């Protein structure tokens, strides 16, 4: 039988190993950090092939994301022109979110919350936060993990310290329960070419077609 003391000792050793691999500081020492970004300052608009899964149903089509100043607008339409939703996200300062249109079948609290929170995270300004909790930088300097509190909740994002591209975004709920997980990859100089957002039984996948 394994004693509780032995379990505690093993847990302590594991914690020490993790601490050796990562250093927790208010600002990583010796590393010059780039500004994190999902859509670069030069981004104006992008066209993405989209597939949205909601429980056992799925919708497919195109999403166009357009930026005007600090405001983003995203419109999702089917291949035959049926509009699914048309939303607008304001700056972090105004915290505005406007639904210009949403298909009746999507106009449900959990679905609209998933759409809103996903696009708020994707279009947020990383420099505007109410509270900065922590940096976690790995020993090689290849990744920086940042936990912050934004207007729409607490989240963590991982990004490359030299180039700034955000690789992962996670929104936390009560007791650090993951609400939304977003994976971003295949960046060009303007935006990621692949975005996968997940929440329980809902998922949104965007694959870039053109800028």
- End-to-end gap: 61 Å
How do the helices and strands follow one another from N- to C-terminus?
A: HEEEEEEHEEEEEEE
Fraction in beta strands? over 45%
Under the CATH scheme, which architecture would be assigned? Clam
Could you name the CATH homologous superfamily? Answer: Lipoprotein localisation LolA/LolB/LppX
Strand elements, count: 13
Helix content: 10-25%
Number of domains: 1
SSE diagram, text form:
Layout: H1 4-21, E1 22-25, E2 45-54, E3 57-68, E4 71-77, E5 83-89, E6 97-102, H2 109-123, E7 131-138, E8 144-150, E9 153-159, E10 166-172, E11 178-187, E12 192-199, E13 202-210
Q: What structural keywords apply?
A:
alpha+beta, outer membrane lipoprotein receptor (LolB), chain A, 13-stranded antiparallel β-sheet, single chain, 16% helix, 48% strand, 211 residues
